[in-house]
């Protein structure tokens, strides 16, 4: 077991690197800084959705809803209740850090309660039905926020403190990746894969599929909530329409593009897609391009849809994913994941 | 009694006339949902998958009406005037049928043996493509739908208001339902459809051409959605490329409510959803109107996942 501690080292390296990068972030153009922060947030979102959609084989279309809960809860707490906190602990670097960690975790926890509520119907529903129910949950959350005057309703919520830095964003991303990878690689975590691969067989060998599904939803929602908190404290203004169906689809596309059930692939796809979409903004401004290309570049959803259809027709396993195989090779799943096997036919 | 508030909302009060009026409005809204829901249900019955793009075919139907009416209507004058709207409707249904068949051929057919999730993701892709491709082609701003027929209140209905468009929507919906029932119950293709939904393998062994039946089902469902689009646009004359999303999802809820795969169930589910939604929309909870369908869906799926008319299926390993 040469690589036994490699995950921990990578986690530590990620946090140290993000702290160092954060220290120098004052010298970076603020526009680029924002994009880099969005990339980190998207990595957290995509990796956490991958736990639900990729590893556990459920299909959630409501990730933006969890993100919205985290964003609103943490923004509300840090905006409305920070003065009492600062009075008690003084305003310094550590008290701000403490407050920020506190509100992020609070946002994540409330989101994970919502994940529990969504996870419960998932016990009875499969595939298409589950997708629509999670979509519905996302929309219900959005409508509820729109009707809550305490957080601005449809006008949105502004005046959120700008606490999010590179350090927080990438530490959270690193922790998310670490938790998801460690979980899946653990003995317990194999259960997620069995639920995905064959639910009936998993149940037959005594795996509590219900518990795995709910765990996936709760954990995925928690990280989505934390990512939402980071997002709120980065843009300092949030409104309900920023967490709509299209946002959920964006995260789903990252997972599908990267390959469902491949954390590395999903991380890569989150980076790629965020950069690509920012780049499209420039493309739509290039005068020398034909009008039609510029107009398509402006309308990013056309590109999403074409990416989705093309991927499903040509490479349904995504860039880095693997096709499900029939039968498990000698040595079990662990061996099959590490050794190269001849590609299975679709 | 004014201080008796529910969650801070004033109590719901309604006279019987208001009640009847809301019921009529609800029925006419339900008729659209029913027309779209039929397409979901038929496709589900035959292929066991949810055609996410169905609501967008409904949108394309409305836009067909928008572009066809000014070109077709002037040709029908004098005694032929009533034929104008009918020709728009028929042509729209044909275009939508072709579109539905094309979507199935290009996007779904190559994936038929793949996991359901793959097809679902493709369907979401097709839906987004139609919506935002529509935005690209038609423009994102809402357009006002032309008047296909004079819209006025009927006389002799007392305090109730029933408009000519509402009446037309009822008549068209009911005739289409009758026609659909005839096709499904009395024709060879309809029999093939029912056979396929019962047992695809056995149907294929009996010589049913699966591809033809699936194409036919998509064509039929899309034609109904197109008709629904026109009728919807008559009543709510502002159309835009994203208009299909919400009615599409709600019609899906209607299909599940009636028992997905069940044709009369879809019609009943649509009507029920339309009525419930109109009553909620008319109450103090109107801002929650769009969440009602989803809440309803979650409740049905939790307590009676087979819907009103559906039959439970046993999962075989």
Please, could you describe this protein's structure?
- Chain A is an all-alpha fold and 346 residues long.
- Chain A has a domain at 6-243.
- Chain A is 71% helix and 1% strand.
- Chain A is built from 15 helices and 2 strands.
- Chain A has helices at 6-23, 30-55, 63-80, 82-89, 93-122, 127-146, 166-185, 190-197, 199-204, 209-235, 245-258, 263-283, 291-298, 300-314, 332-338; strands at 157-158, 237-238.
- In chain B, 68% of the residues lie in helices and 1% in strands.
- Chain B starts with 15 loop residues before the first helix and ends in a 14-residue tail after the last helix.
- Chain B has helices spanning 16-47, 54-72, 83-108, 116-138, 164-186, 188-198, 200-205, 210-235, 245-258, 263-282, 289-303; strands at 143-144, 238-239.
- Chain B has a domain at 31-74 and 81-244.
- In chain B, helix 1 (16-47) packs across helix 6 (188-198) and helix 2 runs parallel beside helix 4.
- Chain B has 11 helices and 2 strands.
- Chain B is globular, with a radius of gyration of 20 Å.
- Chain B is mostly helical.
- The longest helix of chain B has 32 residues, at 16-47.
How many helices of chain B in DSSP terms? 11
The most extensive interface, with participating residues per chain, is:
A-B, 42 and 43 residues
Could you state the order of secondary-structure elements of chain B as H and E? HHHHEHHHHEHHH
H/E element sequence of chain A: HHHHHHEHHHHEHHHHH
- C-alpha geometry of chain B: globular
User: How many beta-strand runs of chain B?
Assistant: 2
Strand-residue proportion of chain B: under 5%
Largest sheet of chain A: 2 strands, antiparallel
Report, as a whole number of angstroms, the end-to-end distance of chain B.
59 Å
Portion in strands of chain A? under 5%
How many strands of chain A? 2
Please outline the major beta sheet of chain B: 2 strands, antiparallel
Query: From the structure provided, what is the oligomeric state, counting identical versus distinct chains?
Result: heterodimer
**Average predicted local confidence, pLDDT of chain A:** 85
Derived structural class of chain B: mainly alpha
């Amino acid at each position: 077991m040469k690589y036994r501690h490699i995950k921990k080292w990578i986690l530590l390296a990620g946090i140290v690197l993000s702290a160092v990068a954060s220290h120098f972030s004052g010298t970076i153009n603020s526009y680029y800084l924002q994009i880099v922060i969005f990339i980190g947030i998207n990595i957290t979102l995509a990796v956490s959705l991958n736990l639900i959609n990729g590893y556990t084989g459920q299909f959630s279309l409501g990730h933006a809803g969890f993100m919205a809960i985290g964003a609103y809860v943490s923004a509300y707490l840090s905006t409305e209740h920070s003065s009492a906190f600062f009075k008690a602990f003084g305003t310094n670097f550590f008290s701000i850090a403490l407050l920020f960690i506190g509100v992020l975790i609070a946002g994540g926890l409330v989101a994970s309660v919502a994940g529990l509520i969504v996870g419960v119907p998932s016990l009875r529903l499969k595939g298409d039905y589950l997708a629509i129910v999670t979509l519905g949950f996302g929309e219900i959350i959005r409508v509820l926020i729109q009707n809550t005057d305490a957080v601005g309703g449809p006008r949105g919520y502004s005046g959120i403190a700008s606490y999010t830095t590179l350090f927080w964003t990438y530490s959270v991303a690193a922790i998310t990746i670490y938790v998801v990878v460690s979980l899946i690689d653990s003995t317990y975590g194999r259960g997620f894969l069995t639920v995905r691969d064959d639910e009936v067989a998993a149940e037959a060998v005594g795996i509590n599929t219900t518990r795995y599904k709910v765990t996936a939803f709760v954990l995925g929602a928690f990280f989505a909530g934390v990512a939402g908190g980071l997002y709120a404290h980065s843009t300092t203004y949030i409104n309900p329409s920023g967490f709509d169906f299209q946002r959920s689809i964006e995260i789903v596309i990252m997972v599908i593009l990267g390959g469902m059930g491949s954390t590395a692939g999903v991380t890569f796809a989150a980076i790629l897609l965020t950069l690509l979409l920012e780049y499209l903004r420039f493309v739509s401004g290039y005068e020398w391009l034909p009008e039609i290309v510029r107009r398509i570049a402006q309308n990013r959803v056309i590109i999403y849809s074409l990416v989705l259809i093309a991927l499903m027709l040509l490479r349904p396993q995504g860039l880095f994913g693997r096709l499900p195989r029939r039968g498990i090779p000698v040595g079990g799943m662990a061996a099959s994941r590490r050794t190269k096997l001849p590609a299975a036919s679709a | 009694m004014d201080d008796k508030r529910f969650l801070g909302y004033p109590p719901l009060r309604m006279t019987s006339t208001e009640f009847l009026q809301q019921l009529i409005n609800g029925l006419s809204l339900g008729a659209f949902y029913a027309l779209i829901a039929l397409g979901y249900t038929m496709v589900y019955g035959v292929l066991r998958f949810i055609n996410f793009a169905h609501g967008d075919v409904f949108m394309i139907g409305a836009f067909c009406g928008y572009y066809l009416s000014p070109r077709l209507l002037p040709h029908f004058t004098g005694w032929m005037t009533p034929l104008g709207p009918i020709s728009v409707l028929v042509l729209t249904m044909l275009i939508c049928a072709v579109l539905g068949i094309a979507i199935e051929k290009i996007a779904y057919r190559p994936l038929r043996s793949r996991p359901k999730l793959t097809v679902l993701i493709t369907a979401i892709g097709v839906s987004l493509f139609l919506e935002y491709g529509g935005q690209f082609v038609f423009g994102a701003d809402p357009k006002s739908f032309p008047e296909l027929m004079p819209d006025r209140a009927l006389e002799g209905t007392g305090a109730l208001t029933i408009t000519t468009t509402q009446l037309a929507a009822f008549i068209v919906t009911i005739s289409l339902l009758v026609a659909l029932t005839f096709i499904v119950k009395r024709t060879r293709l309809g029999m093939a459809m029912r056979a396929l939904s019962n047992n695809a393998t056995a149907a294929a062994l009996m010589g049913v051409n699966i591809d033809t039946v699936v194409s036919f089902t998509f064509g039929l469902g899309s034609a109904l959605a197109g008709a629904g689009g026109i009728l919807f646009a008559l009543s709510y004359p502002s159309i835009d490329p994203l208009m299909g999303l919400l009615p599409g999802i709600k019609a899906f809820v209607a299909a599940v409510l009636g028992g997905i795969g069940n044709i009369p169930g879809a019609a009943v589910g649509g009507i029920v959803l339309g009525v419930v939604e109109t009553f909620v929309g008319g109450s103090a909870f109107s801002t929650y109107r769009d969440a009602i369908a989803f809440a309803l869906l979650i409740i049905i799926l939790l307590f009676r996942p087979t819907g009103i008319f559906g039959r439970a299926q046993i999962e075989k390993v």
